Amino acid sequence: MANHFDSTAVDTATFLAVERTRVAYDRTMMAWIRTAISLLTFGFGIYKFFEIGSGRTQGMAHRIGPREFGLAMVSIGLISLLIAAFDNRRNISGLEAYAHITHRSKATLLAVLIGFLCILAICIMLLRA
User: Fold this and answer.
1) What 3 state SS string does the chain have?
2) Which of 14, 69, 94, 107 is 20 to 30 A away from residue 36, measured at CA?
3) Distance (Å, rounded) from C-alpha 15 to C-alpha 5?
């Protein structure tokens, strides 16, 4: 792994504490990713279910329809993913400054990929008006 302390005399307890903290940050990021995926799939599923089930709904200018509700769900998923990514980066940066470690999280890479998927879903929902 790329997790190394710069100092030469670090006791094992400190090293393991930093590793536990780093892994906890990654687990938290994965929980946010699961939440974003749930919002994405639920929002897009509602959109597609009502689009297929009843065709295009017209005359609903005064109410929120399945398309708008689906867009809101997917958008909330994307926003939650962005907030989680910034929070994770801030936490990891603080840990890097404290313990002089280098860490590149695979959870952050997954968050970026899911973020692109959210953007793709929003584009599909907007372009199929």
Assistant:
1) CCCCCCCCCCCHHHHHHHHHHHHHHHHHHHHHHHHHHHHHHHHHHHHHHHHHHHCCCCCCCCCCCHHHHHHHHHHHHHHHHHHHHHHHHHHHHHHHHHHCCCCCCHHHHHHHHHHHHHHHHHHHHHHCC
2) 94
3) 8
80 pLDDT higher than 90 = yes
Q: 2-42: per-residue pLDDT in tens?
A: 555 555 456 888 888 888 999 999 999 999 999 999 999 99
CB 113 within 8 A of CB 79: no
- The structure tokens listed for 13 are 């307890």
Q: How far apart are CA 55 and CA 43, in angstroms?
A: 17
CA 54-118-115 angle, 5° bins? 170
Residues 114 and 81 sit within 8 Å (Cβ to Cβ) = yes
- pLDDT at residue 1 in the model: 47
